[in-house]
Structure of Glycerol-3-phosphate dehydrogenase [NAD(+)]:
Amino acid sequence: MSGNKLRLAIIGSGNWGSAIARIAGRNMIRHSDTFHPEVRMYVHEESINGQKLTEIINAKHENVKYLPGIPIPENVVAVPSATAAAQDADLLIFVTPHQFIASICSELKGKIKPSTQALSMIKGVEVKDGNINIFADVIEKLLGCKCSALSGANIANEVAQDKFSETTIGYRPGEHEKAELWFKVFDTPFFRVGLVEDVAGVSLCGALKNVVAIAAGFTDGLGWGDNAKAAVMRIGLMEMKSFCEEFFEGVKAETFTETSAGIADLITTCFGGRNRKCAEAFVKTGKSFPVLEKELLNGQRLQGVETAREVYTFLEARGRQQGYPLFTAVHQISSGDYKPSEMTSHL
Ligand SMILES: NC(=O)c1ccc[n+]([C@@H]2O[C@H](COP(=O)([O-])OP(=O)(O)OC[C@H]3O[C@@H](n4cnc5c(N)ncnc54)[C@H](O)[C@@H]3O)[C@@H](O)[C@H]2O)c1
Ligand SMILES: O=P(O)(O)OC[C@H](O)CO
């Protein structure tokens, strides 16, 4: 009997979405007292050698494009419609590149259960009409459901191979019980979940570290060495913290220093992430980021360049660029206004 058990759905099936489907799918079986075994996963349909990606995933139990070589549990079912995935869900994970969230939420509006609880794993921000929002807030506003956030030092390919890592769930004040439910969805002996009452801090660390990772990639491309990279990371962490303190209320200092979402994610992204890799190639090849994204990422999406542009737009609207010289330089270099070698002269 699985009549009153909680149903989980996943909106997104890229590199991280597929890795998290593996973890959550297995935990649905492990905690079968609480959860319905079937997990529906929304897949943005595409054709691979003439066959639909959803059909391949459901037949082979592998996302051959975005997470090749890693088995996805058989209780995870790929569906090509976000609405079909989400409509019966009690728990709804959002894990797509941030540029697609607005259109997905407008499709889902009014079609999910009023009691659904959401969780955002998106590393990005929305800048609109001179305001900045984290995606947990965007989702809450667009869908009218409560939304927590998960972020951490989580390179998807490593997590998918069950290599040890930690992550952080940020929850709203008074919602510790909800966070404990999400803990049960994700925690495994190899993927250890910490909880912190700080949705904004967790979300912003995840978004802003991608901008710092671009700067770290520039230093790698320039061959400036480890000291320069450490300096850029330190300055980046200070700008992340200042930005949160200046523009958001209630972000906790310990989120930066004591959680996986903070310093640990900054370190892993600046050494092993896609943003770093593409930024190094940007310096070495002179190719643009859109070209490098296509050539190097096989359909996966860069978040840092777009986030740098959005953060710059927001700071410019407030005349505050000079308070954030590293964030500003990353945008100016990515958009071709500065040379990469000029990065530190503006700090
Ligand atoms: N990959 C990682 O290591 C990792 C780790 C932690 C967090 N994240 C974050 O998780 C989020 C999702 O990242 P990811 O790695 O799963 O994605 P990804 O970079 O693999 O992006 C590709 C996904 O985008 C989908 N897509 C393309 N066009 C679309 C459209 N028009 N509408 C909807 N979907 C479309 C593709 O089908 C595919 O599922 C991002 O915010 C990312 O920063 C990624
Ligand atoms: O590959 P990146 O640069 O998008 O970073 C991936 C994750 O966010 C690391 O935690």
In short: Residues 123, 153-155, 210, 213, 265, 268-269, 273-275, 303 surround SN-glycerol-3-phosphate (ligand 2) (CB under 6 Å). The chain is about 50% helix and 15% strand.
